[in-house]
Write a structure and sequence with these properties.
By secondary structure, the chain is of the alpha/beta class. The chain is elongated and about 115 Å long. This is Rv1355c family protein.
Amino acid sequence: MYLNKDINKFIKEFTLKNELYRNSYTPVFYRISNVEEEVKFISLLKEKPYIQVFDTIQNQLTDLVKGLSPSTIFNENLIKETIVNHLDGADITKYGVWAYYPWMEKVVHILDEEEYVLVRTNRNKHKITQEEQDHLSKKKIGVMGLSVGQSVSLTIAIERGCGELRIADFDVLDLTNLNRIRSGIQNIDLKKTVIVAREIAEIDPYLKVTCFHEGITEENIDTFLTAGGKLDLLIDECDSFDIKISSREKAKSLGIPVLMEGSDRCTIDIERFDLEPDRPVLHGFVKDMDMQVFKSLKTMDEKIPYIAPVTGVETLSPRMKASAIEIMSSISTWPQLASAVTYGGGISADISRKILLGQLKVSGRFWIDMDELIFDAENESGDKEIEVQKTPDFATYIKTHLSDDSTGEELTEDLLNLLITAANKAPSGGNNQPWLWHYGNKTLHLFLNKPVSGAYLDPDYISSYISLGAAIENLLLAASVNELKVEWKLTPELLPDHVALFKFSKGNVATLFENQLAAQIESRHTNRKSGIKHDLDVNELKLLETIASENTDVSLSWITDNDALKTLGEIAGDADLLRMFIPDAHSDFIEKEMRWTIEETNDTADGISIHSLDLTNNDQIGLRLMKDKKAISFLKSINGGSAFKKLALKQFLNSSAIGLITIPQVSPLSYLKGGIAVEKLWLKAADLGYQIHPMNVPLIFFYKNNFEQSSDLSDEIKAKISQMHGTFRGIFKISNDIAEVFLFRLFKAESSPVKTIRRPLNKTLSFGTAETTY
């Protein structure tokens, strides 16, 4: 047991020995494939048997070979085999580098620089492309001040946002710094430069870090900015006001851009002296100030007139304003929080990357104030005015365009409601429900609801016509099972406004077939599950063909071959991705078709709820990510999105068959007739226990490419669609001059638990004549 004086002596002696390591921040490399290096390494381990050795080269090589072959599906044996091939006979112990960290007394076995950097930045892609990563590796960044600057420096280093990092701070770590600087108590009184350099070296020992332990002074500013090559970006996080100004004046003369982040409200200053050589320093806030006078000032009271315009006192957060009043009263200096320093450092690193890559050229002052971005909404009082949508004057239209004919039976409102409810259960593209019904003079009229039709993927209303045809079929079935005869006709001469009219009389007896189909109207729905591949009954396929083509010139073709299903899945995936990459189509999908919350779904009573898509949580997240237009634009620029196409491919491969309904002539009437056939087919398929998933996006692009008069497709997209269409026609053995009405998956699966909802009847059915309104 030591006496007090012995303890003090021991601690003093041990502390002196540790001084050898206090300024060490660069690891020592041993490449022991070289004999001389191996001898030195063995000597190190013998001299210091207490050194901890970490050999994780096998793990790193595993990551390396996976990164070199991202499309390969590895198992344990294949990984081992690939690593052996990669080593090409080399001794794994001597492969790569042994890095010795003196301040930790640890040795780590790592990949050599090129492979190390490749593996360590692999997960950056494609947020940072390989070309961008290579470009950044040639850049030099200087960081002055290592409070916020520590967070900036570490984030840049972790992302490998540069090839050299110069860091400057004269200060040592204090206990008060640990409220915002990530470090350990063992580093108190150690230079901040050393702490940051060590942290970087422990992450990436190959990244060049140059330390200016004395901070930035008038004597070394030129060296900091230019020695070993001019900086590509200066990041100012220092506290010294005069250094802020003098460093900017130097940077301006050298054409070096400057970035500064103030942790309060995440204030961002960007000064592009590289692009604007005449730009005033600090946005002109100090242009009338004599900085030589400032250097002679002693008290904060004297300095405030200089500092205030730069810090923007009026733009400080409320708590910072209150803190400013409390300085030297209840607090000794400006407060900073770890949360603000951390996200400020991350934002600064993000901006620095964009500046260096030429993706951001703006100068100015900006705020990313979390209190303004995320806050509790204030209670609002008063009633909001409800917008009332006017019902079109159908009665006048009918009187103007159709002869007055009051023959037929008068239907009660209850019976009409029953018929229209069934009709409105028909499928529609994006659940847009493009139907409006009007009853008057014993006649039911079907109109196209133009305000909800004509989207990008509803060219010339062809998708809406299919839906209207399906609604007609439901109406006829519902009438039949309710003992009504129907005399009806389509009105192609009045399209796209008026679609069809119907007159009713009593005395019908529904057939068994009609009863079977009508029984499925309520339960029929779009099922988007991947499903389970199921052997098909050939007789059932023939039955569905017969039903679809009954009394029309409709044809139904089936594809069941696996190779053909795979090709069709690829075409569907390409079409889905093309939909995302065309801005108007993307906007329609995100803003008009999709409903992203239950509340939004219930409020609109149309569109497709994300909760009804039968997606995994992962796929739901992926779909939500697709909402971002900028993300989509970048994805397109790197020819990305292959993961998005995998869902369609999986669905096609899990299908029992793919069906295609066609009609010889391309006309609105063809799509209306096709819609009638679609609904008959769908209802009978449901009766047989099958699920149907429409996949019409490719067909719509084919139509836009070949028939749409006002098509805005670029030549590049047209060529791609033509190629897809050629492959598609080859699979189905069809010509290019027919109407390709409906492409769908047929498969077995459980019913979807959540189904799309329909607008209330009072939004789709109206009554009255030109003389009388009910």
